[in-house]
Write a structure and sequence with these properties.
434 Repressor (Amino-terminal Domain); 7 helices; 2 domains
Length: 105
């Protein structure tokens, strides 16, 4: 999912119009539309950070790098990993490598 697609989905889930979101960021609704269409991207890092805060998501999620939405979810995964034995961790690493290989076939 692209940044624009993800932004639009988050905006719709929050029941915000482009104008409302633009007002929250001191931008025009038209600029939000450009972001969603992928014809423009935020140039100001503060706008990107504010978007993540408004929707309570990680930057990786916002940019489509990860499907993990919040840091709380990441913390939960890390806590589970830390509770695993070394053998379980090794098995998990092998399984993840297998999934990555299958994805690229």
């Amino acid at each position: 999912m692209t940044f624009g697609e993800r932004l639009k989905q988050l905006r719709l889930d929050a029941k915000l119009t482009q104008i409302e979101l633009g007002n929250m960021l001191c931008l025009s609704g038209r600029m939000i539309g450009f972001y969603e269409q992928g014809t423009s991207y935020p140039q100001d890092p503060q706008v990107i950070i504010r978007l993540a805060h408004i929707f309570n998501v990680t930057l990786d999620y916002l940019f489509g790098v990860s499907n993990i939405k919040t840091y709380k979810e990441i913390d939960g995964v890390v806590a589970q990993y830390e509770q695993m034995s070394e053998k379980e961790r090794d098995n998990l690493r092998h399984y993840l490598a297998f999934l990555k290989q299958e994805k690229h076939k």
